[in-house]
Specification:
Helix content is about 25%, strand content about 35%. By secondary structure, it is α+β, with helices and mostly antiparallel strands. It has one domain (about 10-80): YggU-like (Conserved Hypothetical Protein Mth637, Chain: A), CATH 3.30.1200.10. The protein starts with 7 loop residues before the first strand and ends with a helix.
């Protein structure tokens, strides 16, 4: 029996907390820029980033994880089940 593994993609993300609205700004180089209204206190901004990315990419929140940068604006986030090309395509479709 063979087992198909889904891709896990890591994405560099730059977060702007306390923004006026939740928004995926887009890729600047290899970094995805994201704005969230939540403050950077008690993990609220981190949770807002996960919810925003999961909703924008149409995946479950459990498939989006912060790997590094819990206390920083610069984060490394993993997305299970999507390739980088698919992530970029889905985010581009949001802006169209």
């Amino acid at each position: 029996m063979s087992q198909t593994t889904e891709p896990t993609t890591t994405v560099k993300v730059r977060v702007q907390p306390r923004a006026s609205r939740n928004q995926i700004v887009g890729f600047m180089g290899d970094t995805l820029r994201v704005r969230v209204t939540a403050p950077p206190e008690d993990g609220k901004a981190n949770q807002a980033v996960i919810v925003l990315l999961a909703g924008s990419l149409d995946v479950a929140k459990s498939r989006v994880q912060i790997i590094r940068g819990h206390g920083s604006r610069d984060k490394l986030i993993s997305v299970d089940g999507l390739s980088l090309d698919e992530i970029q395509r889905r985010l581009q479709n949001l802006r169209s």
